[in-house]
Amino acid sequence: MKDGYGRNISYLRLSVTDLCNLRCRYCMPEEGVCKLAHDRLLTEDEMVTAVRAAAGLGITKVRITGGEPLVKPNILSICRRVAAVEGIAETDLTTNATRLPAMAQALREAGIRRVNISLDTLNAEKYAFITRRGVLAEAMEGIRAALAAGFDKVKINAVLIGGFNEDEVPALAELTRRWPVDMRFIELMPMPGDTLFGEQAYIPADRVLDMLPEAAPAAEHDGVARLYRLPGAMGNIGLISPLSSHFCGECNRLRLTADGHLKPCLHSREEICIKGLDEAGMTQAMREAIRMKPRQHDPLSRGEPSRAARQMNQIGG
Ligand code: SAM
Ligand code: SF4
């Protein structure tokens, strides 16, 4: 379905939980989030109904996210049922990878096509710092498991944080020569109530190119990412710049939170609740959410954080 600005909305990001086994500093408070009462969350059946409604409106791609989707006990069943919905051509997953060693193969068999993995650093101490509790070796093992499981594509995403991992850009980019992965650098987005990072943390993704003199523009296109490639690499380098050059003109997505709220835009307060509706009701609500999509969100900067009114783990980044 087209929105009011002629954009074809073909992509649903489905958050299956706002819980996580990590506590990344830019995403989630240290104490975690209070566990939502079970009856406020979408049930598995409601998620599948929502995907069916979305498919009826022309959505062909679903990305399952969270929180950490792999902490959801029924995640395999959700993946299998979403991937089987008629009209859904591609079902992908975003994860911190720490549970992939045990689950990658089963996720592949459940119909997951592509996996995005979050990894901000290759240094074990820094990984423990930024995730507040993560073990780097588990995430690295998860990447290897994803590669062994034979997904169509594995992408690694690092949030660029000045003064934290800027100096690791060359080493992270080098992963594209070691493995058949894309390595994407994402500008840190200022979220509501965010006081952890100083001005120097917000650096434009273009700075990555200064650190990778060998990188040349790549032939392929990847939605919101600008792509480059190192000589001899098996995957691309991607730059995702929500702050320095926002990509609202190409936005083709709708988001559904774990507690059943449709978000027409990641950075706006507008939400429509679909919890408890039948498929016809969900279809109607999705039409309305697509119609409500703004032309673009307000500019983001440290002084003007996202108006999302939720943390990223509660939206599904
Ligand atoms: N737990 C999974 C993971 O970490 O990949 C999926 C959910 S997480 C919210 C999705 C993505 O959002 C991650 O790549 C994470 O780095 C990104 N993210 C979270 N907070 C962010 C922020 N303030 N700025 C930029 N990216 C952010
Ligand atoms: Fe968890 Fe992902 Fe947020 Fe990190 S970025 S706290 S892994 S949801």
What features would you describe in this structure?
By secondary structure, this protein is of the alpha/beta class. The protein has a single domain, classed as Aldolase class I (TIM Barrel, Alpha-Beta Barrel). Helices cover 27% and strands 17% of the residues. The protein has a twelve-stranded mixed beta sheet with strand order 7-8-9-6-5-4-3-2-1-10-11-12. Helix 2 runs parallel beside helix 3. It starts with 10 loop residues before the first strand and ends with a helix. The model has no long low-confidence stretch (mean pLDDT 92). Iron/sulfur cluster binds next to helix 9.
Could you give the topology of this structure?
Elements: E1 11-15, H1 44-56, E2 61-65, H2 75-83, E3 90-95, H3 100-110, E4 114-118, H4 124-131, H5 136-149, E5 153-160, H6 169-178, E6 182-187, H7 207-211, E7 216-217, E8 226-229, E9 237-240, E10 253-256, E11 261-263, E12 272-273, H8 279-291, H9 312-315
Parallel strand pairs: 1-2, 1-10, 2-3, 3-4, 4-5, 5-6, 6-9
Antiparallel strand pairs: 7-8, 8-9, 10-11, 11-12
Helix pairs in contact: 1-2, 1-8, 2-3, 3-5
The site of S-adenosylmethionine has 19 residues, from strand 3, strand 5 and helix 9.
